[in-house]
Amino acid sequence: MRDYDEVTAFLGEWGPFQRLIFFLLSASIIPNGFTGLSSVFLIATPEHRCRVPDAANLSSAWRNHTVPLRLRDGREVPHSCRRYRLATIANFSALGLEPGRDVDLGQLEQESCLDGWEFSQDVYLSTIVTEWNLVCEDDWKAPLTISLFFVGVLLGSFISGQLSDRFGRKNVLFVTMGMQTGFSFLQIFSKNFEMFVVLFVLVGMGQISNYVAAFVLGMAIRLESVHILCIWLHGAATVCLLHPRLADAAGGADDAGGAMRGTLVVHP
Questions:
Q1: Per residue in 213-241, pLDDT tens?
Q2: What angle do CA 141, 144, 148 make, to 5 degrees?
Q3: 219, 147, 213: which is closest to 180 by C-alpha?
Q4: What is the DSSP string of 130-193?
Q5: Contact between 120 and 48 (Cβ < 8 Å)
Q6: Which domain holds residue 37?
Q7: Which of 49, 73, 197, 209 is 20 to 30 A from residue 80's alpha carbon, by CA?
Q8: 157 located within any domain
Q9: DSSP state, residue 80
Q10: What is the pTM of this model?
Q11: Do 95 and 151 lie in a common domain?
């Protein structure tokens, strides 16, 4: 029996057929770079501090001294996870006492951020961190998101080959493209952190399965598959360039939660 190279020799090394298939496979790989790097923007943690309710009866002086300072990199910055006990400083404010002059701030009792946080929007309008307050006691959840994404990549690596052998690589390629796109779109409507990470695991499974199927198909038709890797890197670089503008346009500059969802719209 003749081997595969002999059977396909009539196709040539780099003819119109190879160019067409290379273009189509490359187009299917570009979104993978978007998905892989989107987490850099999605789980970023902006500067934050404890929120003080607008209804709190505080003088302007006390409102500017509700958060204790701490040393970071040799300079004093507002604490991210603690504030002075609100009932105490409200009482001092009502008595007309001034912070620092009449009251030693270092001796005041502190409490956690019972009313949530205020996040800086200097760099990011919104991320999953600002959407679900993944800071302080819950700050471990943000890096867990990336870990679970790569759990999906690992699972997809194990099963994509078996599925391709059983159902054909072309079928697996199209199904996993739809899987990656569909679950990425559903992430936009995530109601909580748990829903988001479950969908992210499925996106990871679809991403690697799509890539492996395209890579093997490229090799099977006598393409230099290193080109496919280059196209993935092109997609990764493109998301870095386009993200800020496309996320703002998709999410809306005035919508705090929209920018995070806009990032999800950027990558299919």
A1: 888 887 776 554 445 555 555 555 555 55
A2: 135
A3: 213
A4: HHHT--GGGTTHHHHHHHHHHHHHHHHHHHHHHHHHHH-HHHHHHHHHHHHHHHHHHHTT--SH
A5: yes
A6: 4-45+139-266
A7: 197
A8: yes
A9: S
A10: 0.75
A11: no
